[in-house]
Amino acid sequence: MSTNNSKQPVSPAAGLLSNTTCQMEEELSISFSITFMTVGILSNSLAIAILMKAYQRFRQKYKSSFLLLASALVITDFFGHLINGAIAVFVYASDKDWIHFDKSNVLCSIFGICMVFSGLCPLFLGSVMAIERCIGVTQPIFHSTKITSKHVKMMLSGVCFFAVFVALLPILGHRDYKIQASKTWCFYKTDHIKDWEDRFYLLLFSFLGLLALGISFFCNAVTGISLLRVKFKSQQHRQGRSHHFEMVIQLLGIMCVSCVCWSPFLVTMASIGMNRQDFMGACERTLFTLRMATWNQILDPWVYILLRKAVLKSLYTFTRRCCGVHIISLHVWELSSIKNSLKVAAISESPVTEKSAST
C-alpha cells in the first residue's frame, strides 16, 4: 500500500466511482459482454434483412406501418448492442480503470445516454406497435383511412425524440451519469441516494418502462380477445383461422419476452429510487437483471423471425409427422396478417352481405 501523502490531482471520473464494490468474475463478465454483443448483432442483422426483404415484397399500405415500426425497433436494438457492447468490451480490456481512460467522464456519459435510450426506445416502440395493431384489428376502417404512413413516421420520430430527451435529462440538469459498483457500466446514481433529483431519474425511467409494458400488455390482450371473438363469430370463414393462430402466438411471444426480461430491472431501479432496497447487497442482483434486459433485445428479433406463418406452418407439419396425431386442421396461410384481420372484421360487421354472397 502506498504511503505517499502528497496531494495529487483528482480527475472528474474519480468522484463518479461508486464507494461500494461489486466483486464479479472478470472472465465470466467479459465473456457475457462479448456473447451478448455478438449474438445481438447477428440476430438483429438477420431480422433487418428479413424485414427489408418483406418490405420489398409487400408495399401495401396496411403492411407498411407495421414493417416501419418493426424495422425501427430492430435497428434500435442493433445499434444498442453495437455501441453499448463495444464500450463494455473496451472497459473490460482496460481493466475497468475509468480514472485512467475517462478522466473527463465523456465515455461514461455516452455510455449512460446509450443505456437509457436503448432501454426505453424499444419499449416505447413496442407499445406503439401494440396500439397500431389494436386499432388495426378493432377499428380496421379507421386504421385504413386515418392512419397513414406519414402519421406513423411522425409517431416514430416523436418516440425517438422523447427517448433522447429522457436520456439527456441528467446532462441538461447538470448531473453526471455514474459509474456503477461493478465498474462495468454507467447509469443514473444508484448508491447512497440523498438528492430528490437522482431519485426522480430512477423513478422516471422505471415508470416509463413499466407504463410502456402495461400499454403493450393491455393492447395486445384487447387484440387477442378481439381476434378470438371474431373467430368464434365466423366459424365458416376458414381463411382467417391460420391468421388467428399466428397472431395469438406472436402476441404471447412478444408479451412474455418483454415482461420477463424487463420487469426485474425496472422494478429493481424503482426499489432503489424509493430507498426500499439496499444497494450494498443488490449489486450482483442488479447486474443480473441488467443482463436479463439485454436478453430482451436479443430475443426481440427472434420473436418476429421464428413466429412467422411460414416457420409456424413448417413447425406444425414437422410436429404432426413426428407425433402422428391429428390435433387441429390449419388451412391455407394468407399472405398478410393485417390483410386477414381486415377481411375477418369486415365479414363480422356485415353478415348479411356474406350470406347473400354465399347464396
Automatic annotation (TrEMBL):
Q: Which InterPro entries match?
A: GPCR_Rhodpsn, GPCR_Rhodpsn_7TM, PglndnF_rcpt, Prostanoid_rcpt, Prostglndn_DP_rcpt
Spell out the subcellular localization from the entry. Cell membrane
Q: Is Cell membrane found in the keyword set? A: yes
Top-rank taxon: Eukaryota
Q: Where is the G-protein coupled receptors family 1 profile domain?
A: 43-304
GO MF, one term, reads: prostaglandin F receptor activity
Please list the GO biological process terms of this entry.
adenylate cyclase-activating G protein-coupled receptor signaling pathway; cellular response to prostaglandin D stimulus; inflammatory response; negative regulation of apoptotic process; positive regulation of cell population proliferation; positive regulation of cytosolic calcium ion concentration; positive regulation of gene expression; response to estradiol
Q: Name one Pfam family in it.
A: 7tm_1
Annotated membrane topology is:
Multi-pass membrane protein
Transmembrane domains' residue ranges: 34-54, 66-92, 104-131, 152-172, 200-228, 248-267
Recorded GO cellular component terms are:
cytoplasm; extracellular region; plasma membrane
Q: Does the keyword Glycoprotein apply?
A: yes
Q: Which keywords, in A-to-Z order, does the entry hold?
A: Cell membrane, Disulfide bond, G-protein coupled receptor, Glycoprotein, Membrane, Receptor, Transducer, Transmembrane, Transmembrane helix
**What's the protein here called?**
Prostaglandin F2-alpha receptor
**Chain's gene name:** PTGFR
